[in-house]
Design goal:
By secondary structure, the chain is of the alpha/beta class. The protein is built from 18 helices and 15 strands.
Length: 508
């Protein structure tokens, strides 16, 4: 097993961010629920969290986890286990967590990496088709995980015993989005750190801010409530620079852009930060097409399209680095690298991109997504996707063991892994001492205001075509959304019917 150097740089931001969450919401399962006290909280007199699943001797049963290769993706935490205790603090916490759970329940974890995220759904499908129970858990990207649960290829969380979603190691902001018609479809616990890592933020170049007297201090804008889409766009316009004055903007010429990003990281983040969602789920677990007939949504995507089609405003990693492989994070990494060498004022992307900025020429800051306008009450953060372990629905699965392991890994992650992040944060060298308090304040805002748009999960039915229209400069977004409405609503109805069928099969 390779112990990648990216982890050490990534450590700081995640600890900073998670420290904010944990200090204010240590017993809230993502900040929404009060866990209470005593046995119901899962926290005992020793100050540790303990699974509420019954302790049982599983007599050395093998528990095999199939995962996505962590060497491919530099902005994720994909490691499930290690062959020996690593020196890295966080990796060591993961290792210790697993050994504790193994010792309590007398199980043996086996960890296998399959490859790219595009490969794991096929492995799961083949397992179910041949009724092969090789893996007890297998990692999929969220949209693939949800589709497998709805189709019956993977177990819904409601089918698995001992999962107590009121416990603090369950991430409520994620789980609430995947509770439909009373069925809990997916189970996010603190063992799934990508639910935190794939939170979208805005990085900015402090050097460019200080050198350009016309650019306002982003931190002061956030503090005043003036960090809005309009301000974001105006600062992008002021920062861009056609270095060789050829009226074209290219990374090959070293031109300076307003913002660098990828369409899937950038576009939905703008409307989510504006308080909008393309697809919503209500308290009854019913899906709705929120973008339909929404004039504010049309206004936001129309202005966004104008911006990304204005030369110099937006550096698309997909276009500017199209000569690079699309596998893994290669083009995304290239975009982050260009930002880090003063190629753009802003970089929109997930928190995990921080590790690529270790050699950045100028200091950088981090801030939340811009608001729609100053009247918006709070800054909102997009939680994008969240790769998750799910259970292949094969007859050989021991559901009691599955529930015990999922719950116990979550509880012990809260004991071991999350504290390993936040306890060693502020001593790390990546962020200057004088910037750390403000960085933590910004990350408080980012993590405490995280939300989800199910348009990210049902990406093909609306988000993909609307992103293409934004890039193409369609112009008439009211018409574009109207043309998609019938197919989106049909898809949502069919999805709701499948969930209702699943509910019937579960006898709920």
């Amino acid at each position: 097993m390779n112990y990648r150097r990216r982890f050490s740089a990534l450590l700081l931001v995640l600890i900073l961010a998670l420290s904010a969450v944990l200090v204010s919401c240590r017993t809230s399962g993502g900040g929404d629920k009060d866990s209470g006290s005593g046995n119901n909280s899962g926290q005992e007199s020793d100050g540790k969290y303990h699974s509420t699943a019954p302790v049982k001797d599983y007599k050395g049963a093998t528990f095999t986890v199939g995962g996505i290769d962590p060497n491919i993706y530099s902005s994720m935490i994909l490691d499930f286990d290690f062959e020996e205790n690593p020196q890295d603090t966080v990796q060591s916490a993961v290792y210790k967590r697993n050994r504790i759970v193994e010792d309590i329940y007398k199980v043996k974890f086996v960890n296998e990496y399959i490859g790219y995220y595009t490969e794991t759904p096929g492995v799961l499908d083949n397992m179910v088709g041949s009724d092969d129970s090789k893996y007890q858990l297998i990692m999929l990207v969220q949209r693939d995980a949800l589709s497998r649960v709805i189709s019956g290829y993977a177990m819904a969380a409601s089918e698995i015993p001992y999962l107590d979603f009121d416990q603090p190691w369950y991430i409520s902001k994620m789980n609430d989005a995947f509770n439909a018609d009373g069925i809990q479809l997916l189970a996010y616990t603190d063992s799934i750190m990508n639910a935190y890592m794939q939170t979208i933020c805005v990085f900015f170049n402090m050097g460019m801010i200080s050198e350009n007297p016309g650019l306002e201090n982003p931190y002061e804008l956030v503090d005043k409530g003036s960090w809005t889409i309009e301000k974001f766009y105006s600062m992008c316009s002021m920062a861009m620079n056609d270095v060789n004055a050829d009226s074209e903007y290219n990374v090959a010429d070293g031109d300076v852009f307003g913002v660098v990003g990828e369409f899937d990281s950038f576009y939905p983040s703008v409307w989510i930060g504006s308080g909008l969602k393309a697809i919503s789920v209500d308290r009854r677990g019913q899906y709705s097409f929120s973008a339909s007939g929404n004039e504010k949504f049309i206004d936001v995507v129309s202005k966004l399209s104008d911006v990304v089609n204005t030369p110099g405003m937006y550096c698309s990693s997909t276009d500017q680095f199209s000569d690079r492989s699309s596998d893994g994070d290669v083009m995304r990494d290239a975009g982050t690298k260009y930002f880090s060498t003063n190629g753009a004022l802003f970089r929109i992307g997930c928190v995990g991109y921080i590790q690529l900025m270790r050699d950045m020429e100028a200091d950088f800051g981090v801030m939340p997504l811009p608001k729609y306008d100053e009247s918006q009450s709070e800054y909102l953060t997009r939680t994008c996707d969240g790769w998750i372990h799910i259970v292949p629905n094969t007859t050989g699965q021991n559901r009691e063991l599955l529930g015990t392991m999922i719950d116990s890994l979550g509880a012990e992650s809260r004991n071991q892994v999350i504290p390993a992040f936040f306890e060693t944060t502020l001593n790390y060298k990546l962020i200057r001492d004088e910037d750390k308090p403000k960085t933590q304040e910004m990350l408080d805002i980012i993590f405490n205001n995280a939300t989800m748009d199910l348009g990210d999960t049902f990406i093909e039915i609306f988000t993909s075509p609307i992103m293409k229209a934004i890039t193409d400069g369609n112009g008439n977004f009211s018409s574009t959304i109207g043309m998609l409405e019938s197919s989106v609503n049909q898809y949502l109805r069919e999805t709701q019917e499948k969930i209702a069928d699943l509910k019937g099969q579960l006898g709920q």
